[in-house]
Amino acid sequence: MIRIELAKQARPRTFVALGALAGLTVALAVALELTGAGRAEPVGDIPLLLVPAASPFVLPLIALSSTMKFFLPLAVSVFAGEAVAGEARWGSLRYALGRGVSRSRFLAAKAAVAALLSLAAVLLVPLIALGAGLAMAGWQALPAVDGGASAAVRQAPAVFAPAAALGRLAVGTGYVGAGMTSVFAFAFFLSTVTARPLVAVAGGVGLTILSRVLNYDYLPGVAVLSPYLPNNDVDLWLHLFQEPARTAGMGSFLVLQAIYTGVFLALAWWWFTRRDVLS
Amino acid sequence: MAASAAADCPAVRIEGLVKRLPRGVTAIAGLDLVVERGQVVGLTGPNGCGKSMTLRVLLGLVRPTAGRALLFGEAVRPGAAVLGRVGALVDGPGFVPHLSGLENLRLAWRLTGRPAAEARLDAALAVAGLDVAIDRPYRTYSHGMRYRLGLAQALLGTPDLLLLDEPTTGLDPAHVREVRTAITGVAARGGTVLLSSHVMAEVEEVCTHAAFMREGRLVAAGSVAQLTGSRRSLEAAYLDLAG
Amino acid sequence: MIGVELAKQCRRARGWVTLGVMAAVPALLTAVIGLTRPAIPERVGDWGSVVTSTSGLTMPLIALSAMQLFLLPLAVAVFAGEAVAGEAAWGSLRYVLARPRSRSRVLAAKAGVAAAFSAATVAVAGGSAVLTGVAAFGWTPLTVLDLQHTTAFTYATATFAPGDALGRVALGAGMVAAGLVSTFAFALLLSTLTASPFAAVAGGVGLGLVSRALDNVAGLHALGPWLPLTDGGSTLWTGLFFSPVQLDGLAQQALVQTAYAAVFLAAAWLRFTRADVLA
Fold it and tell me: Domain tally for chain A?
């Protein structure tokens, strides 16, 4: 079942989406190289001041933090949104289900493959950036200057040994990946509801944008909602690169993700196993 | 080109028409066809033999890869003036959902650029047979009602040429009869009709002439009587001639 | 031809609902701010802030800069995206084109009507903001705080008489509209390429969003002035409200928007006049 699904999804669109992400990462690396790899770039809200030429881990940090708020949710939405709605649009959904395949199994296979592709997207960005970083700087320790700290602290930045830096990067990547699950689940749910993949994709992206827009102070009073919206604290993992690592808020973020993911995946399963297939 | 604009030029002249689609599909592979004025010609053949595509070329919707098409002596081009004399129903009706049937017909007529007096709206409305529903939004119409409105739109302003694509597919017998009445009506007034159909029996009944197509080419053409010859039916003739 | 197109578009609920929303959002903002925090400075653009309770003319600044990133591009994309793709979806495009009317004329009429509606959205949004703002906070001189030149010791403010301020608001609205030109053109291009109005709208909105996201990617920021950002990268038009008027970067943005729009419109024209109509 999963193998069939993988075969179905090995289509231009998948490769274009992954390729675009890879291309963006490479473009980023090239741009930084060209504009001065020896200069400190501010990353995230802290901000961390990182010099690309100093360590191979700087590029993955920049790449991941640049893509996590829009481009990764977009890629994940594309994979999740296409999963079921794509078949409905092709008109092949009714035949796939009519063969006596249990709907749960069908949905599980679709979810698994879409999740696999989303995971690939999330891993692709830091991996490619790490490759580029290694080419640029070799296997070195990561000095991370805390731009928000006092001058005295900034003079003596935290330095992470390569292995430690790699470890924290891996944890950060996992955190970002976890942050994508709510977007995935929402887009996947929409995919079971509509026969137009684009609606599901737009929904996933829309959720992300909504989370961010409501976070801004445009509408006073509405900002109180922001802790309950799924994508706001996706940048907390950057705090892992402060000394001591500050993990406040990461736990509640993960719990929130789990809730959103659980709810929407359950909704998707419930709806899909019950609905009339009219497409 | 004054000579070809004379009253004796055929309604439709297609010369060496070729249409290739992307990915190597050839929809029309060299078609030559002449439809004289006053004829009712049935373009017939199996699905996918290029009938619909031919009609779309005649309406200026599709650009031929090679060859040309002339309507009443004028080359067919997007926005050609001669299209104001053509009524068509191709791939089903298409109207604006939030406007009423009557408004849709009026707007359709405005696009021909001909004066409103020439529209013969009553005749068209009679064909549509929608009574009160003509003032309701198009989106509330049933399949049959939409179809009749599409036919009415094609008949606006007593067209000199009527192009119909599979006109009776999916219609119940009462509506089928209406379509045939409309066709014979146009012919009776000296107009020309070119319709496509894969139902041979229909072509045999309604048309004066027929053209057999197969895989994008013309296989045989002539009057229905001619083609049938001594065979049992037009269908038998098709199977004989087109294999 | 324009008459036909107007008849088609003026009668549908969608256009008026969109305009209605454009009018309602500024009114809503006025109400919310007025009720919750009228005396607290609101950020306007990158470098300015205004205090609402001092003048009703602060509302158009706040409303337009809030709507410029997403809502206004959305409305414009809806009008442009529906223009051709809507008819293709209805199945009526082939009947419109199988007529003695040149395709250029048809496209021009459709684009013209869509453009008129798009211009109306900006006008309605601005007008509603002015009306509700003045009704709530009064027709008084507008004071803008220039954050760039404000120090711990001095406030740099600019004050404009109400009439003067209104004039600048009108000019600013015009600049906002100019920033939406690339979105309009792109949505129109997509409209000629697809039979799904939704895809055209999503693409139109996506252009602005992706430009913004790319601009936010650290390292690619140098690309910013060349991207079709709907808000000019930093709400340039608010520069009208400083003394002296600050408009650097405006010429660049105008050029970029025009260039993108010209390319998209030319492509749309080429496509519409040459392509086979299979819809």
Answer: 1
